[in-house]
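thought: user wants a sequence for this fold. calling inverse folding tool.
action: design(structure=
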C-alpha cells in the first residue's frame, strides 16, 4: 500500500535550487527511490513505500540545509545522502556502526568546502584527523587522494602543520613513454598532475606558487624522500601500490615529530612487473595491528565518478573472482 506525505517549504527563495532546473532534483530522487513526487508551488506530495517516502523527506531536508549553508547541491549530493541512508539501514542493530551524515566531517579550504559523499569517506576523513598514519585502500574514483589533499590543505591553512609534502612513485601505467624532455620538474610533473589539480581546487594559484617557491608545499617523486626526516608536515604518498617494499619502508620511516602521513593506493591496479611485490601489499600485511596506524578500505559503492565507473569496477572484480 502506497504512503502519501505532504511537505511544505516556507522559504520560496531556495526552491529553484532545491527542486533543480526543470525539477531535475525531484525527478532524480523519484528515479533513485522509486517514488512519485508532485509539486504545487511550495508544496510537494510524495507517494511510495513508507521507507522510500521517509528517505526522500530526509534527502530533501539534507539538501535544504546545504543550500541554507551556501553549499551547491546536485545529483552528487543526492547520491551521497542515499549512500549514508543505505549504510545506516544495512548496519541497523549492529553494535559498531560508522558515524552517519548527522556528524559527517566538513573540510574547509581556501576555495571550497568539501563534505564526504559516503560513510567510508567520512570515516577516512576522521581517521586522518585522529591518527598519525592512515592507509587509504580501494579502487579509483573513491576520493582517496582528493580528500587527503583537502585535509592536508585545511590543516596547513589552520597552522596545524608547517609543510605539505605530496609524493608518488614515477611508474608508468602500463605504457613505456621513453625519453621525456625538459628539466626534472617537467619530467615528473605528469605523474603528479592529480595532486596539482586537487591543490588548485582548494587554494589560490598565487598562494600555491608562493608556497612552492618557499618549500612549504612540495610535490615530488618518491625517490626524493630518501634520507630526509619529515617533521611538522602533512605527507601524502599517492599510487602506493607502485612502490617496492624497500621504497615503502623508506618513506614510512621518514615520519618525524608533529607529522601525519597518508598512504593511498589500489592493490588491484599495480603497474609493477609481475615478479615485483607491491610495497603497499607488503605494508598492509606487515603493519596490521600496529598501534597508531589506521587502515581505511573503500569499495565500488564509494566511487563518486560517473556511475558507470562503479559498474566497470564490479565487472572486473567479478571476472577476477570467477578466475580464482
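)
observation: tool returned 324 residues.
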Amino acid at each position: 500500500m502506497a504512503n502519501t506525505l505532504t511537505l511544505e517549504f516556507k522559504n520560496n527563495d531556495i526552491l529553484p535550487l532545491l527542486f533543480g532546473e526543470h525539477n531535475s532534483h525531484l525527478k532524480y530522487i523519484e528515479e533513485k527511490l522509486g517514488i512519485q513526487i508532485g509539486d504545487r508551488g511550495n508544496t510537494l506530495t510524495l507517494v511510495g513505500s513508507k521507507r522510500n517516502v521517509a528517505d526522500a523527506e530526509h534527502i530533501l531536508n539534507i539538501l535544504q540545509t546545504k543550500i541554507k549553508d551556501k553549499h551547491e547541491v546536485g545529483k552528487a549530493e543526492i547520491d551521497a545522502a542515499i549512500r549514508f541512508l543505505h549504510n545506516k539501514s544495512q548496519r541497523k542493530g549492529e553494535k559498531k556502526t560508522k558515524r552517519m551524515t548527522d556528524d559527517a566531517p566538513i573540510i574547509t579550504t581556501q576555495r571550497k568546502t568539501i563534505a564526504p559523499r559516503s560513510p567510508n569517506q567520512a570515516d577516512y576523513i576522521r581517521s586522518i584527523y585522529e591518527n598519525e598514519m592512515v592507509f587509504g585502500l580501494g579502487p579509483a574514483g573513491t576520493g582517496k587522494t582528493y580528500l587527503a589533499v583537502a585535509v592536508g590543505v585545511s590543516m596547513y591553512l589552520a597552522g596545524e602543520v608547517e609543510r605539505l609534502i605530496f609524493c608518488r612513485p614515477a611508474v608508468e601505467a602500463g605504457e613505456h613513454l621513453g625519453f621525456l624532455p625538459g628539466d626534472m620538474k617537467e619530467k615528473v610533473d605528469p605523474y603528479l598532475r592529480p595532486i596539482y589539480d586537487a591543490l588548485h581546487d582548494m587554494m589560490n594559484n598565487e598562494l600555491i606558487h608562493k608556497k612552492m617557491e618557499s618549500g612549504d608545499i612540495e610535490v615530488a617523486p618518491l625517490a626524493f624522500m630518501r634520507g630526509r626526516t619529515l617533521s611538522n608536515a602533512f605527507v601524502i604518498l599517492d599510487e602506493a601500490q607502485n612502490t617496492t617494499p624497500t621504497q615503502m619502508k623508506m618513506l614510512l620511516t621518514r615520519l618525524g615529530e608533529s607529522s601525519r602521513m597518508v598512504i593511498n593506493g589500489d592493490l588491484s591496479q599495480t603497474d609493477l612487473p609481475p615478479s615485483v611485490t607491491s610495497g603497499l601489499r607488503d605494508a598492509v600485511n606487515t603493519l596490521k595491528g600496529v598501534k597508531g596506524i589506521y587502515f581505511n578500505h573503500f569499495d565500488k559503492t564509494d566511487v563518486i565518478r560517473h556511475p558507470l565507473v562503479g559498474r566497470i569496477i564490479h565487472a572486473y572484480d567479478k571476472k577476477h573472482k570467477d578466475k580464482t
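thought: summarizing for user.
answer: Here is the designed sequence. The chain has a mean pLDDT of 85.
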